[in-house]
Amino acid sequence: MASNKTFFGHPRGLATLFFTEMWERFSYYGMRALLFLFIVAPIHEGGLGFDDKSGGAIYGLYTMFVYLLALPGGWIADNLFGLRRSIFYGGCIIAAGHFCLALPYQETFFIGLLFIVMGTGLLKPNISSMVGELYGPEDQVRRDNGFSIFYMGINIGALIAPIICGYLGENVNWHYGFAAAGIGMVLGVIQFKLTEKNLGDAGITVKSAGDQATQKMRLLWLSIMLVALAIFVVMMWLKIIVVDPVLLANSFKWLIGICVGLYFTYTLIFEKLDADEKKKVAAIAIVFVITAIFYTGYEGQGSTLNIFAKRYTDLVVAGFATPASWFQSLPPIYVVTFVPIFTGLWIFLASKNSNPSTPVKLSLGLVFTALAYVAMIGASFVVISGQKALPTWLFLTYLLLTFGEICLYPIGLSGITKLSPKRLVGRMMGVFFMALALGNLVAGLFAGDIDEKVVAKDPHVLVDLFQFIVIMMMASAVVVLLIAKPLRKLMGDVR
């Protein structure tokens, strides 16, 4: 157990993890708010000068790997370093990545992205696990409340990051914005080391250490993979290997789908599940598809909607040119404001025996996302008329997207934990995060369709893109409602 000192009535170690996560999210969302804008910004404006399709693919690949590398990151913590050292190493690698982005070279930019996804894969899944280790098995109420406090740290970091990093990046120098993100992560790492004594014994033990020979073999394989990765990076640097980001992104889109499909097939056939477990795993497969579709729309925030704000939104307020990246601070504001309201609504409806079922809430998430892009269609017609859209269109869009995530994300996450056979919970959570990875990747590819030159010739391209997303979301919502009854049967006692 951790220290007896308290943080709002919780173990003092919660403060250590709260501020570490806050600064990690500051670094992530601060950099993400600038990333796509920087990639497609002209070289004479300090950007990389990529076309929109390549920029969207690079952005999508980056956000995809952030989620995918959480899987090996969790394995490394469980089998090699333990949670605590993994968090520290991850934070150091993330900071190094941001400072690589702060250098004005294309080569260091891609190395920086590589470092950040590797570091995030080590830190992000393991710091959440550390929160759980601060509480005993009999302390479930405080444990749940502790995660709520921890969640606030995420939103505080996500709120202030675009304001600081976005202003520096867009109004001063792109690389200053990336450097600010790196400084935030350094503060998080320093804070973690200075206060880790408050964590007590939490996160020190390597859960699946094995014997010394096993550890050495694992370290050897990890070293071989890192060396192979380093060789690949050097070959890219020397242009011996040239990677087409659009082709790579489209390949990964299909690869993730095929791998997940094969995994579910393997699980259903070879994992010796009983009839009830098979039904629930089939339900998880459906939730995977719904989640992936939802996030193709939701994760347009950092790419499609960000570039719309930059190019087609009137950003002058009271004579001040507002950075486009500042809109990225809206979701955490909305989350903090409306999560308690939605939670109270579900509790109230449950007391009246009218709480919507899981399939209905999932479909609501899709409907809200569709409505968000209906708002973007309205904004696009303003652009077609020859004017710039007012910021209120994006305010409304982000609000509706947040409503969608509140309906879908916690329900989907909770559903996975409840539906998974006990021995497969970890792997099924990994599958859930692969849905997020796939959604992020496709969202980046969508952003590539807002080509500035094409839009200049035919602004209706904006309407076509947003209309496609609306149709996809609404059609998916209708399908979910149509299969709600059989889906509930598959879920059994999980409602």
From TrEMBL:
UniProt keyword annotations, A-Z: Cell membrane, Membrane, Peptide transport, Protein transport, Transmembrane, Transmembrane helix, Transport
CDD domains for this protein: MFS_DtpA_like (cd17346)
Main location: membrane
UniProt xrefs under InterPro entries: Dipep/tripep_permease, MFS_trans_sf, MFS_Transporters, POT_fam, PTR2_symporter_CS
Pfam families to which the protein is assigned, alphabetical: PTR2
Keyword Transcription listed: no
Membrane topology: Multi-pass membrane protein
Subcellular location: Cell membrane; Membrane
GO cellular component, one term: plasma membrane
MF GO annotations: peptide transmembrane transporter activity
GO biological process: oligopeptide transport
Transmembrane segments: 26-44, 56-75, 87-104, 110-127, 148-169, 219-240, 252-269, 281-298, 333-350, 362-384, 390-412, 424-445, 465-484
Family: Belongs to the major facilitator superfamily. Proton-dependent oligopeptide transporter (POT/PTR) (TC 2.A.17) family.
UniProt-recorded name of the protein: MFS transporter
Organism: Pseudochryseolinea flava
